[in-house]
C-alpha cells in the first residue's frame, strides 16, 4: 500500500519553532482556518490509515492492488530497461508498508531485473520498518532506503548513473491543490532524463456518492483519523482541544473533482496552545479545512502531465475504471 506516510513525524514534543508549530500558527490564523493533511500521519494516524485501507467503503487501495497485480508483467516491462542486465534504480516516493510495491518487486526479481529499490520517506520509522520487512520477505532484493524529502531524494539520485523508475502510488498526488500539484510534477520531471520513467497512481472520478462514502465511512474510522489531528496538537503543542466539540465533515464536489475534509467546531470555543503562547477562537460551526483528495479523469491526467513536460505512455486501469496507474516518460 502506499500507506504512504505522505509526510513527516516531527519530534515528540514540538518546540514553538518546530515545523508543526509554525504550520499551526499560520494555518489557524487564516480567515478560512486550515491544517495540512501531511500532519495526519503520526503513529496513531498511520495506524488509523491502515484501518481505513481495509474499510469496505475505501475502494482505492484494494482497487490499485488488483490493478497492479493483473498486468504486473506489462507494468514491470514498462519500468525496467530493455537490456536484461542493465542496472537501474526503482525509487518509491512515500513507500508506506510496501504491500502494493511488493507485487512489482517480486515481478522484477522473477524476471531477473538488475535493480536497487530506493524507498523514500521523511519518516525514518517508515523506512526502517519497510527495510526490515523486505530483508525477511525478499532477502535477495537490494534496498537503499532514503530518509529525505521527495525532490531532494530525486536530485541526489539523478547524479547516479542508470535509469530511474519512480513510483508514486496510492493517489497521494490527490492531496495537492492543483497549482501545487503542477509545481510538484514539474519538480519531479526536472532532474529526469528521457530514459527515466514514472508510475503514478490516480483515483478516478466515479459515482459521487461512492467517493463521498469512502471518506465518511459507517464505522467512523475516517472521522477518528481526521480528529486525531487535534489529538496530535494536544499532545505535541499542549493544546486543549475538547474532541467532544468537534465533528468530521467531508464532501465531494464533482465540478473540481475534490473531496474536501473539515473539522467542524460544534460550539463557540477558545483553544489554548502553550507551545505557541497563543489562543485561537472558533465560532460555532466554523471549520478547519484539513484535506483535499482530488479525483481525476484520463483527459485531466494527460493535460496535467503535458503541462509538466511528461508524456503518458500507458494507462493501466481496473475493469470498473475506479483507479489508474499511469506510466509517464519525460
Ligand atoms: C493517502 C492521500 C491517498 O486521500 O484517499 C484516506 C488519505 N484520507 N481517507 C486519500 C485519506 C482520508 C488518502 N491518501
From TrEMBL:
Q: Which domain of life is it from?
A: Bacteria
Q: Which GO terms describe its biological process?
A: methylation
UniProt lists compositionally biased (Low complexity) regions at 1-21
Q: What Gene Ontology molecular-function terms does this entry list?
A: L-histidine N(alpha)-methyltransferase activity
Q: Where is the Histidine-specific methyltransferase SAM-dependent domain?
A: 21-329
For this protein, what is the EC number? 2.1.1.44
**What keywords are annotated for this sequence in UniProt?**
Methyltransferase, Transferase
Which parts of the sequence are annotated with region: Disordered? 1-26
Keyword rRNA-binding among UniProt keywords: no
- Keyword Methyltransferase annotated: yes
| InterPro entries hit by this protein | EgtD, EgtD_Methyltrsf_superfamily, MeTrfase_dom, MeTrfase_EgtD-like, SAM-dependent_MTases_sf
Write down what this protein is called: L-histidine N(Alpha)-methyltransferase
| Species of origin | Hymenobacter persicinus
Q: Which gene encodes it?
A: egtD
Amino acid at each position: 500500500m502506499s500507506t504512504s506516510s505522505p509526510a513527516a513525524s516531527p519530534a515528540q514534543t514540538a518546540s514553538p519553532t518546530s515545523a508543526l508549530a509554525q504550520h499551526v500558527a499560520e494555518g489557524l490564523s487564516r480567515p478560512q482556518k486550515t491544517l495540512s493533511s501531511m500532519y495526519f500521519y503520526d503513529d496513531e494516524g498511520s495506524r488509523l490509515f491502515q484501518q481505513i485501507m481495509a474499510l469496505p467503503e475505501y475502494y482505492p487501495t484494494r482497487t490499485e492492488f488488483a490493478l497492479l497485480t493483473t498486468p504486473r508483467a506489462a507494468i514491470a516491462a514498462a519500468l525496467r530497461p530493455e537490456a536484461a542486465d542493465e542496472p537501474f534504480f526503482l525509487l518509491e516516493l512515500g513507500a508506506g508498508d510496501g504491500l502494493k510495491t511488493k507485487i512489482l518487486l517480486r515481478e522484477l526479481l522473477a524476471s531477473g531485473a538488475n535493480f536497487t529499490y530506493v524507498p523514500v520517506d521523511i519518516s525514518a520509522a517508515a523506512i526502517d520498518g519497510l527495510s526490515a520487512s523486505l530483508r525477511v520477505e525478499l532477502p535477495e532484493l537490494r534496498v537503499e532506503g532514503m530518509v529525505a524529502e521527495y525532490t531532494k531524494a530525486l536530485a541526489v539520485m539523478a547524479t547516479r548513473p542508470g535509469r530511474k523508475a519512480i513510483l508514486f502510488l496510492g493517489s497521494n498526488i490527490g492531496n495537492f491543490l492543483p497549482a501545487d500539484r503542477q509545481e510538484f510534477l514539474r519538480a519531479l520531471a526536472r532532474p529526469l532524463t528521457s530514459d527515466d520513467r514514472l508510475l503514478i497512481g490516480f483515483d478516478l472520478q466515479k459515482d459521487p456518492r461512492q467517493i463521498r462514502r469512502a471518506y465518511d465511512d459507517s464505522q467512523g474510522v475516517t472521522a477518528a483519523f481526521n480528529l486525531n489531528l487535534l489529538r496530535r496538537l494536544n499532545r505535541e503543542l499542549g493544546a486543549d482541544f475538547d474532541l467532544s466539540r468537534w465533528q468530521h465533515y467531508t464532501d465531494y464536489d464533482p465540478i473540481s473533482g475534490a473531496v474536501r475534509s473539515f473539522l467542524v467546531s460544534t460550539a463557540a470555543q477558545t483553544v489554548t496552545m502553550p507551545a505557541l503562547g497563543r489562543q485561537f477562537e472558533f465560532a460555532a460551526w466554523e471549520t478547519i479545512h484539513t484535506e483535499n483528495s482530488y479525483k481525476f479523469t484520463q483527459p485531466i491526467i494527460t493535460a496535467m502531465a503535458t503541462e509538466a513536460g511528461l508524456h503518458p505512455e500507458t494507462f493501466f486501469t481496473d475493469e470498473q475504471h475506479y483507479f489508474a496507474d499511469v506510466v509517464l516518460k519525460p
